[in-house]
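Changelog note: in this version the structure field was regenerated for every chain. One regenerated record is shown below for reference.
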Amino acid sequence: MAMLTLVNRGSDGATVQSVVGALGIGFHQARDQRYTQYGYPAGPPYDGSKLFSLTSTRVFDDDSFSPATIGIASDFTGGSSGGPWVLRSSLVALSLTDYSYVYPRSLRGVMFGPYFGGLAQRLYESVGGAAAGSRSTPPRR
């Protein structure tokens, strides 16, 4: 996971956020959520040419990582990596598309993303993000 701060404005004074939009980010939230995943999957049956979304609940935690990553039911393919997992009611991102498994077969159709806990929060704050505490940060306008 990586985060960065964009500080320059366009010649008209506009920020990147004011031009393309932005989501909030949430830390230390419950894993059992209804996530809407966004991405540009490029492997068949997709071709990477347009934005897709799907909504899924958490189906599996991969505890081979620390903290354990979150798994949702998803048929997204390569190209969708980095796309946010959003709580649609609040437009807050709680994870992002990271990886999937081919084997074991029981995990096919599950996409994994990092849990935004303390490690993610410290990274966010290290690049200048406002301290979010244990609550989500609302989208900036």
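Spot check on this record: Residues 100 and 138 are 29 Å apart (CA to CA). Residues 132-141 have pLDDT under 50 and may be disordered.
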